[in-house]
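Morning run. Coffee first, then this:
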Amino acid sequence: MATTLKIGDKAPAFTGINEKEETVKLADFKGKKLVLYFYPHDNTPTCTEEACNLRDNYHSFLAKGYSILGVSEDSVKKHQNFIKKHELPFSLLADTDHVIHNQFGVWGEKTMYGKKYMGTIRTTFIIDEKGKIEDIIEKVEAKNHSTQILG
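And here it is:
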């Protein structure tokens, strides 16, 4: 299942808890551009590669006025460890109950080794200063994700 959101749609007004146990809302980014990326799990090879690629290009994002926010179903504690281990300069939201995933349509059926299960469909949403979806990246290339976003 892919997201039903489209470029030009208003981004869902999400609320979540970050690694510092602070409440984070879409409204906090009003007037700023936001890279909202959904990924399956902390400390897995592809997810780590994606997060580190965003980290390594973080100053380029800041220079172009972007904030970055990651979302997975992992806990606050797992996010704290992941951020510390990989020195990530951006926040991660713990969406353990999949509310934000469902708002963005990125929680769905996946298949691995012939087994079907429910999980995060790796997707990135670029949200503009007015809260509208500017771009949706559904075929994320973890090693080159910053280039996919920044061009």
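The helical segments are 45-56, 58-63, 76-86, 99-104, 145-150. Good start to the day.
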